[in-house]
Design goal:
homodimer; Arc Repressor Mutant, subunit A; D-Maltodextrin-Binding Protein, domain 2; five-stranded mixed beta sheet; 10 helices; rod-shaped; DNA-binding
Chain lengths: ~300, ~300
DNA sequence: CAGCATCTTTACGAAAAACGGAAAGACCCT
DNA sequence: AGGGTCTTTCCGTTTTTCGTAAAGATGCTG
């Protein structure tokens, strides 16, 4: 028997002081109500209701059970409400993960606006340059580059982005000439430490004709910020995301090279994506933050 | 769906961190467990579990729901226990009703022993000379004379008893002679005020040959104690229960007459009965009190 | 006091729900 | 790349639950 249904019937019976009346009120037959009450009494091993065909009253056990059950039912409904509200209302803790560079450059600066707009949301932001297991680590949203094939996740594109090669004017002035990508073999290239063997940069011309160049240099790092700093200091040529060096290109600290090529580590889709679990009941805080970030990055990046 | 079963499955799932493991533990198929969890999430409109085929973790809503539900389940079990205990343990309030005379003469004096033996039981004793509605008035036990035909009640015989006629020696000395019941017509008979027309006393000889005598007198009352007092004062002849005049007969305050006849108001079964509801789950306090009273009256009456 | 209306309970056939097995898709480990 | 385990969905079967009907009980009323 469904206990919840049974105790609700029990409550109605007490309220109406009659099995039949409770049944009418709940759209049940008297037989069903009677069965429910008998089953409940059997489960408890106690008679709850003194009943004849004309009168019905509570036993002491029934009175005690009724009082306690009423409180418990109220708690259950309250729990239901608060859990449902958790889904509908923008509140709770939002667990974010993003790569360090975009996190520091765009997520953190946008945080204040978001938290002011939704004061009941708290954010727990983790930064790393490695992918996270959204399910295992309990991360609500991961900010990544490029699509992914995991079908149990949703990747929502926040902004377009492309990679580019750049170096400081000082480095370019004193280094060997750079006319084609093949010339990079003679240069110091600042690469991500991805532990995937020899670093390779891929080029694409006119949307086709891909080719790869093996590169090397005097400085590697798993930190985009470190590579950026190294490039600005004239240590070599860096492959960066366009948005991460926008200011530096604008004020001349860095100069873009090979502007006619698309460039990448692997795939050429370098868009910024918000990745989260596929869910029928997506928490509102997740939907809100994704939408907020999409609008925010649209203003800043493009 | 049975909510209670579903949340218990939910608890097991969290404990085992796996739907399949929870199913194995509960003797359910993974399919069933999965259905239960989906149904629970649908009811709440919230995703409770982040699950892939290899990992399972709680969402924030799941965490909140789990914590609250755990407390609620504990309360439900506690309520179950205390209600069951109420049935098994001799405690609670025992609501008694009895006729005034036997109540004052035997129930009240026996009370101390009973309450001392079962200190967790409290007694609420009501005395009246009218039958009570056990169901409507919430009476646990009614002490009555004679069987009753109500099939939803149980009448447990506490003691045998018979009625007898008696009067004070003073009255008998100065009154008209009493050789056969027919002579009662010339006497003052002290009758119960039962509002049933002319009072009638029934006689039976040798277990057969019933006959009735219409009687009248100078004093009526609905109080047995009042009639007893009137008889001792010499106001006339009273029909009393044997136990109610045992002391008076012993010390000569009253004298029994027509000893050869059985006498009654209506039926000749004047045994003392404890009447209570028929119930599969008879509260222990009721069973204990009936047994106690049976033993107690056996000592005193017979 | 007998008839009537309403109530509770049980029996029984029908409707609904839950179950397990199988199959498909996903995912981790080797 | 393949094996093994996991979750989910589909499907046929079993279990449970429901309403109707009938019987017994009870209080009211003429």
């Amino acid at each position: 028997m469904s206990w919840l249904k049974t105790v609700k019937i029990f409550e109605s019976v007490i309220q109406h002081r009659s099995l039949s009346a409770a049944g009418r009120n709940l759209g049940l037959s008297p037989a069903s109500v009677s069965r429910h009450m008998s089953a409940l009494e059997n489960d408890l091993g106690v008679r709850l209701l003194n009943r004849t065909s004309r009168r019905l009253s509570l036993t002491e056990a029934g009175q005690m059970y009724f009082e306690k059950i009423e409180a418990i039912l109220a708690q259950i409904e309250e729990t239901d409400r608060s859990v449902k509200q958790l889904h509908n209302a923008p509140k709770g803790v939002l667990r974010l993960h993003s790569r360090m560079l975009i996190g520091q450059q765009y997520i953190v600066p946008a945080m204040k606006k978001f938290l002011t707009k939704y004061p009941e949301i708290k954010v727990d932001l983790r930064l790393s340059n490695f992918p996270v297991d959204i399910v295992a680590d309990g991360v609500d949203i991961d900010i990544r580059m490029g699509k992914l094939a995991d079908s149990s996740l949703v990747a929502s594109k926040l902004a377009n982005s492309e990679r580019l090669l750049c170096a400081s004017p000082e480095y370019l002035a004193k280094c060997a000439p750079l006319e084609t990508p093949n010339d990079l073999a003679q240069h110091s290239c600042l690469t991500y430490r991805l532990d995937l063997g020899i670093p390779v940069w891929r080029f694409r011309v006119d949307g086709q004709n891909d080719f790869e160049i093996a590169v090397d240099g005097c400085f590697k790092s798993d930190s985009g910020a470190a590579i950026l700093t190294a490039a600005k200091a004239g240590l070599g040529i860096a492959m960066m995301n366009d948005w991460s060096v926008r200011d530096e290109l604008a004020d001349g600290q860095l100069v873009r090279i090979f502007q006619g090529y698309s460039v990448s580590f692997s795939e050429f889709d370098n868009g910024v994506y918000a990745v989260f679990q596929k869910s029928q009941h997506l928490p509102k805080k997740i939907r809100l933050f994704v939408d907020f970030l999409k609008a925010e990055l649209k203003n800043r990046l493009n």
